[in-house]
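Page 37, top half.
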Amino acid sequence: MINIPFTQESRLELINLMIKKTNANKYLEIGCDRDKIFNNVICDYKIGVDPFRGGNRRMTSDEFFSQNTELFDVIFVDGLHYYEQVLKDVDNSLKFLNPNGVIIIHDMLPRKEEESVVPIPTPLPKTWLGDVWKLAFNLSARTEVTFQLVLIDEGCGVVFKQPQEPKKLNIENSWKFYKDNVFNLPLISYTDFIKKYA
């Protein structure tokens, strides 16, 4: 087990903090499930996309983005926890993000290998994050966005449309690679994130 120093703050606190900070008028959530987050986000205009339940758009994220014409201030990505899909969701979100907007991605820091297996295991473990962690390395290596990984709630990635100095890593798709390199990611405590960005 990897000893990641999470603190008790929640993804909902982070989302509402960034809504306040950006004076957000429009919020988009990908993957709503039982609306635990969606119903408690403080924003006048909210769209929640889920193919099964929750939110207010019953469709896949691919279907939503293919017909969407709106820009959003804060986008929360918590849909299918497969790297290929979450990568697509974030790239599509960037196309519909206002210049000063923010994307928040949930479930980026597994602590045990069984939390990260794909496809979805049966029976489902108590905590399952899939291989979303691969996106953390992808975003760390980009130049056109700034990426920070807040140490709360299974790891919440935050993406800004600002250039960054990329991290140079020979990225591999193995648990061993993740375990050996997780502390090379741009990890930040909630307190330090607030000081720096809010």
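Page 37, bottom half:
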Amino acid sequence: MFPELRMRRLRRGEGIRALVRETMLSTDDLVYPLFVVHGRGRREPIGPMPGQFRLSVDQLVEEVQEAYELGIKGVLLFGVPRRKDELGSEAYSDDGIVQRATRALKEALPELVVMADVCLCGYTTHGHCGVVVDGRVDNDRTLELIARTALSLAGSGADVVAPSGMMDGQVRAIRKALDEEGFTDVAIMAYSAKYASCFYGPFREAAGSAPKFGDRRSYQMDPPNVREALLEMELDIREGADIVMVKPALAYLDVIRAAKERFLRPLAAYNVSGEYAMVKAAGRLGWMDEEGAMMEVLLGIKRAGADIILTYFAKDAARMLGRAA
């Protein structure tokens, strides 16, 4: 005890702090989410997400090449379609925008890990994540379209498909479809514990995916629940998920920790658009050290137990990590 034991001895300089540091963040932990649109030469700023853009395929390739050179080896793609319809048909079109982007990225950077979101909300006129029948999302009718979307993305070269719609049985439907068509090596990263969160607002503006009526609380998770999240993950693992995810990350660190302690599957956490926007806004107003807050947030997610962090901060964090190396 004090005075013989002085905890500050191991904090007195950066060298010794580095030697005893318990949690290390690296670019290997980061996946960069990106929005892709039709056309050429398009780089459209996303208002509530400073530093983020809707990119045409040519611009996307340049952006990802820069990120890859910084050490980021994985991206997650979201598409902004040219046309929407009731069934979100561009999501599973082989000529869809994410399919085009995937082919271009794999040609430019064969070793890049391309993850592709599997959901219908950004492609439907109503903005919901599945087939709407009599004003409600029909879970079972949606499964066929989700499986078709995953197959189309796998056929375009995606390494990982990421179902985010929170439909019961979606992982099983995708795994069965992929295996039957010979895509046994394509992994599934399931948005297993995706909460009905207000932190998705900036994303919905970026992707044009806000629901036109009602909300998504009937299929996304209720924020107070933790045991339910663990059950969702267990079911997805049984159905064939290779990676499970908690989304959002920052407000659900306890869920990340509980999942880490219970499951052996790799665990992803999504540092979502609203969490990114808060730090950016406070930094721009001079209320907070933006870079310091960014790294503290990412370290907190890593310390809670995330193996993979999906974050719009990926490039900025990679630059900081490079300077520190």
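Margin note: The CA atoms of residues 127 and 211 lie 4 Å apart.
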